[in-house]
Design brief:
Heme c 1 binds at residues 75, 78-79. This protein has 338 residues and is mainly alpha-helical. It has helices spanning 26-35, 52-63, 125-134, 143-151, 154-163, 171-183, 191-196, 205-215, 283-292, 311-322, and strands at 234-235, 260-261. It is 30% helix and 1% strand. Strands 1-2 form a two-stranded antiparallel ribbon. Residues 1-21 have low confidence and may be disordered.
Length: 338
């Protein structure tokens, strides 16, 4: 995959062929597969074009606890590569050793995600990166202090001088570097991708049936569309919660109440528990939730309703979702400047 790509064309929404429950034709399946084909380039904004040096600097900052107020937590604390850039608990733990109110969203494929956060309050990755760093409950950092700390580290002075020769160490350059690194965090090729590319043996017959269900009877595709399996919109999926989510920013929109950003589905098997508050512990429970239809209330998405999936259909759908997970790879920890 080239990291030097410019903005790729927007991906088409998945084709939804109607909730008929009947088998799809080979032509229909091939058409659907095209809607989920991986892009070959990562989109970088004109304001922050990719360079390996900038991404390397951003990775060091992403792993560096010196950005936090108590020097005891870093971005990886909530976005752990071993768990799909999330954490394997319902909600992450902040700098004061207290659980946060929401689950940490994955950084995977963030280059294709906007707006950011479960409630969409940040438009860009740069804006998003500032939030956890300065939030008193998360990293509790202050940029005035962060800049002073980094400026006293010869290694960082050298890096920033090379990557940002006209600016040096500033709030904006710190956030630009982190966001550039985050855009390079891309899920690997999964069995599903190999099937899309023509390898019929890459996934099981059950997973292929699950793919049909995903786009038809199970009604997943209206929200989980495109190669990253998200429409980047907000939906109330009927989970028990007092958190109004997007409703905080769209008070007059009934459908925004209890609505949260549609998460992508790549590498799901590493990313449990699920939902904005981690209340769904595993993939089986997630499918059961959608099969039952969740809590019926005025804000619940029109796409969420009881599905009446059989045991075999549930198994097929699960096998398809598992096929979206790439083989686990090691993410080496960078050597931090001193």
């Amino acid at each position: 995959m080239s990291f030097l790509g410019r903005v790729v064309g927007s991906l088409s929404a998945a084709v939804v062929l109607g909730l008929t429950g009947s088998p799809l034709s080979a032509a229909d399946i091939n058409s659907l597969k095209e809607q989920y084909r991986r892009p070959l380039e990562i989109p970088f904004p004109d304001s922050a074009p990719y360079s390996p040096q900038m991404a390397t600097l951003g990775k060091m900052l992403f792993f560096d606890p010196r950005l936090s107020g108590n020097k005891n937590i870093n971005c990886v604390s909530c976005h752990n590569p071993s768990f799909g850039y999330e954490v394997p608990v319902p909600t992450a733990v902040g700098s004061a050793n207290t659980h946060l109110g929401r689950q940490a969203p994955t950084v995977l494929n963030a280059a294709w995600v906007a707006p950011m956060f479960w409630d969409g309050r940040a438009e860009t990755l740069e804006e998003q990166a500032a939030g956890p760093i300065t939030n008193p409950e998360e990293m509790d950092g202050k940029f005035e202090t962060i800049i002073e700390v980094l400026d006293e580290i010869p290694g960082y002075n050298k890096w920033f001088g090379s990557v940002f020769p006209n600016e040096g160490i500033t709030r904006d350059t710190v956030l630009t570097a982190i966001a550039t690194y985050e855009r390079t965090v891309v899920s690997g090729w999964a069995p599903f991708d190999r099937w899309v590319e023509g390898d019929e043996g890459a996934i099981s017959a059950s997973a292929k049936r699950g793919f049909e269900l995903f786009n038809d009877k199970a009604n997943c595709a209206p929200c989980h569309s495109g190669w990253n399996f998200t429409d980047n919109k907000f939906h109330d999926i009927g989970t028990p919660t007092e958190d109004i989510g997007r409703g905080l920013y769209e008070e007059d929109n009934p459908k925004a109440q209890f609505a949260f950003k549609t998460p992508g589905l790549r590498n799901l098997t590493y990313r449990a528990p699920f939902t904005h508050n981690g209340s769904i512990p595993d993939l089986e429970t997630m499918i059961a939730h959608y099969n039952a239809g969740g809590i019926e209330r005025p804000s619940r998405s029109e796409h969420v309703r009881p599905l009446d999936l059989s045991e075999q259909e549930v198994e097929d759908l699960k096998n398809f979702l598992v096929s979206l997970t790439a083989e686990r790879t090691e993410t080496p920890m960078p050597t931090l400047p001193n």
